[in-house]
Design goal:
With 128 residues, the chain is of the alpha+beta class. 28% of the residues lie in helices and 26% in strands. It contains 2 helices and 6 strands. The strands form 2 sheets. Strands 1-2-3 form a 3-stranded antiparallel beta sheet, covered by helices on one side. Strands 4-5-6 form a 3-stranded antiparallel beta sheet. β4 and β5 form a beta hairpin.
Length: 128
């Protein structure tokens, strides 16, 4: 897997491993025919897949947030297919309402409450 994609994906995969998350079958299958991007596929237990990609040469926080948004979209679908709550990662302030949103804050990739604009955790350091 392309180095920048693997580095950006690492903290997100760590967060997916938390109790409310779901683990994908990550496959190093490039699907973008653009030398300025790196891509792969995430597959769920039901066999459905979704492509993920980043633009190369961007700041790491920008890449992580862009990828977190795509992985979050995959996770919502995967959790739905398993009959589980789809608000991953759940907002601690509104646990039955909405998931956290990935954002760049002062050069860092974080999960934040989209309603309160409150930073909850750095991506890759979600509490269990």
């Amino acid at each position: 897997m392309e180095r920048e994609l693997a580095a950006a994906l690492e903290p997100i995969m760590s967060d997916l491993g938390k109790p409310a998350g779901v683990q994908p079958d990550l496959r190093d299958e490039s699907w973008r025919d653009d030398p300025q991007t790196a891509s792969a596929f995430l597959y769920g237990a039901d066999g459905s897949g979704q492509g993920i990609s980043i633009n190369l040469g961007q700041p790491a926080a920008t890449q992580i947030v862009a990828l977190a948004d795509q992985v979050q979209e995959w996770a919502v679908e995967a959790l739905w297919s398993l009959g589980r709550a789809t608000n991953w990662p759940p907002c601690p302030h509104h646990p039955s309402s909405h998931p956290l949103a990935p954002m760049v804050v002062t050069g860092r990739a974080v999960w934040a409450c989209p309603t309160l604009s409150t930073e909850i955790s750095e991506i890759g350091r979600l509490a269990s």
